[in-house]
Each structure stands twice: as structure tokens, then as C-alpha cells.
Amino acid sequence: MRILVVEDEHRMALYISQALIEEGFAVDLAHDGARGLELAQTYDYDGVVLDLMLPRLDGLALCRRLREAGRQVPVLILSARDMVEDRVRGLDAGADDYLIKPFAVAELTARLRALQRRHQRTEIPTLTVGALELDPATRVVRQAGRAVSLTQKEYALLEYLMRRSGYVLTRSMIAEHVWDFTFDHASNVVDVYVKHLRGKIDEPGRQSFIQAVRGVGYVLRDPATAAT
Ligand code: CA
Question: Which domain holds residue 70?
Fold first, then answer.
């Protein structure tokens, strides 16, 4: 994990970076807000430890500019004061966590790791095919904004088809991926589940998301564009 520490007090900056390095983090240091922003926009950090009172650009402004630039890096604010309004302003500016000086280094590293875990979870992208959306993090499936309730196997089948949308998948590929067994060609389990799934995700009277490819298997496509 590579962390950017933005702190103008040199002793404090050194103390934090040494502690992080001992814990196995890679650390870059910036001693003013403008330099901090420049680094944070240039490199892909796993976290930013940000002092509030900084020369050239204060911590809140730095955080706000980072978010405006679309940077989602986790930001942990350090403050000398424990003021409720400071916390609120920090969170409003887009910070993810807040720590009061003086603090134990073990708490700082624990919080950085927790932020990292949260960040990774929220980064799993939603799969979208036309009006169909699947969020692998929450396992919620929506069709035209309406939540669709699926069994575990139906969900696994849909996720597999969506991850490879536009590609023709054979019945044995599907079976081995979703059911984890060697496909018995006499079995119609794939066809049965595709039928269930169609009943749940397709608009009545419209072309299906899941098209059969004769003698081969299935392909998932947006029916709105597949017709052309
Ligand atoms: Ca300061």
C-alpha cells in the first residue's frame, strides 16, 4: 500500500511516515497543501493522510479539489482539535475518516487498512447490459430499475452470462461454470434455468435478453440493440 502523508510539521510528518514504513506501507511526503494535491492527482495512492492546517492550500480545500477531480482515493484527516464542526466539514469535503492528534500509530494504520478494505469493496463495478444491471458487491439485480429476485443458481447463471455478454457460450461452458460439474449432454438443466431466468428478467412481449444459438448454447445481449 502506498500512502501520501500531507503534513507541514516536519517532526510529525517524519513520525507518521516512519511508523507507516515500519508497518510495511510505502510513503510519500508533502509539506504543503498545493504539493499534496499535485502528488495526489499524479499518483495512484491507496490512501491519503491529511493534516487540516496546511500552508498554500488547507486540508479541506485539498480534499474538495481531489473529489471534484474525480479522485476516489480514501482520505483520512488529522486534526489537532476535536471539534464536531471540524469533523462535519471534513466529511462534507469528501474525507472518509478523521483522527485527532495526538493519536496512537496503531490506530492510524488500522484505520488506513479498514479504509482500504471498504474502498476495494465499493470499487467492484456494476455489470450493465441495456436495462439490466447486476451489482456483484450486493448481488442486487435490477431490470429497468426494478429489483429482480433470483435464486442463487439463477444469479450465478446471470452473472456468468452478463460478464460475457455478446459472446456465445456453450451449454457445457455454462454448466461447468455455474454448476461446477462435468456437463452431461443429456441434461437439460441449463435450458431449464435459462427459461426461469427469462421469466424474471425479460419484459413480457419483448425479445429476450438471452438468445438461443441453435446447436451451440446461449448468448446474452441487450434486446434493444440485438434486433438490428
Ligand atoms: Ca499543520
Answer: 2-121
